[in-house]
Amino acid sequence: MRSTHERAGRVRSKRLPREVRERQILDAAVEVFSQRGYHAASMDEISEVADISKPMVYAYLGSKEDLFAACIRREATKLMEAIADGVAEAGNSPDEQLWRGLRAFFGFVGEFRDSWRVLHRQASAQGGPFAQELGDMRKRAISLVAALLINTAQDEGVGAAATGQTDALAAALVGASESLADWWLDHPEESAGAVAARLMNLVWMGFGNLVDGHTWQPPKGS
Amino acid sequence: MRSTHERAGRVRSKRLPREVRERQILDAAVEVFSQRGYHAASMDEISEVADISKPMVYAYLGSKEDLFAACIRREATKLMEAIADGVAEAGNSPDEQLWRGLRAFFGFVGEFRDSWRVLHRQASAQGGPFAQELGDMRKRAISLVAALLINTAQDEGVGAAATGQTDALAAALVGASESLADWWLDHPEESAGAVAARLMNLVWMGFGNLVDGHTWQPPKGS
DNA sequence: CCAAGTACCTACTGGCGAGTAAGACTACTG
DNA sequence: CAGTAGTCTTACTCGCCAGTAGGTACTTGG
């Protein structure tokens, strides 16, 4: 006879420290939220995927809302760090910064599809207090891009044409990236770099120039 | 004594033909879905907003899923027609076609905010059979844009630079529009035309050119 | 070896919401 | 006026799911 708590299937690993369980739970939650959406995801399924019982989920991460917010926070932080690292690797040239940022973003999406889905598709659809959580992160992303664009404009000593529009342009750029990332999920035959390059071309050169055969080329070091 | 079915509050209008009721129900559904999201929206609330009892909703529009799909279909059709009309008003010049299409799109979003929300935020988040319904419409939009871009490319006799990328570029462009539309909902001080012009500039000229002060100008007739 | 704390469980409750049963009212048609 | 077709209602059922009560095992420090 086996111990009371073991199940018919695989043996549940036992007595792990809180820290580890919390990570497991968050991983499971990201996976389930990303596949089902917030409302359709059930705490029962999350606990099952996390290979732990439901009360533990509540004990460690709190209510369903709390759990979702925690997912958003963790994944969004990961994403923002990836992008910031990418930009930091670039020199001062604005187009290279933009390029590295885009590459980092698409790299992240390719590597952590669930993270991306939960961030983009799920969070924005909910009206609750996470929309706020996620909205904040999104605003930080837009601000980062806006700052980058403003930098560019000042570097080149530009005037009225671009400044004052940067927020809107940053929003458009972020949206284009998001949308292209979704498109990419359905067309995985391309590499992250190739997708990033397409967007870079569109955004930097403009469609009018692309049509004339003038394209943007990445600098030597990647 | 009043008739059995009247309520304490305002008198419920009575015995309207099916056609009218269906429109009321769809209107209510779009409103509620747009505010709450698919799962959080309840059929009870929808029937209440539509000022009719729940079984009528089921009798006329079927299940919750059916109802949602019907909303998507109706609103998406409205949107696609608006854009197609806009493009059709333009001449043969590709930039003007793009410009008119963008203007029509942002005009629609400004006029029918709920429609836009239900289309963009809600539908894409659900994994059900509506994602399909909506996905189809979105694909049609992307195809329309892609066709327009291909036209442009051929008009100008271009080769490898742009063709073969058109699908991805169209996806990016559609995404940029969507995202900018969301941004606009939070910055309503701008006119639809101004927002459309910003995006047109970014997409047509490219950020590199904007920075140098080279902007795109709308043709005389709007 | 005992106590105390922490990890962990099974088994429930309570409410909400999709969908329906069963019929009542109204209007038209002959 | 009788019959029929279409509109419309109240008042349920029933399943699902967030959240909890109340306890069991392991483990660590004395």
Automatic annotation (TrEMBL), chains A, B:
Pfam families: TetR_C_46, TetR_N. The keyword Translocase does not apply. It comes from the Bacteria. InterPro entries: DesT_TetR_C (IPR054129), Homeodomain-like_sf (IPR009057), HTH-type_TetR-like_transc_reg (IPR050109), HTH_TetR (IPR001647), Tet_transcr_reg_TetR-rel_C_sf (IPR036271). Residues 19-79 form the HTH tetR-type domain. Keywords: DNA-binding, Transcription, Transcription regulation. GO terms for molecular function: DNA-binding transcription factor activity; transcription cis-regulatory region binding. One of its GO terms (biological process) is negative regulation of DNA-templated transcription. Gene3D superfamilies: Tetracycline Repressor, domain 2. This is HTH tetR-type domain-containing protein. It comes from Kutzneria albida DSM 43870.
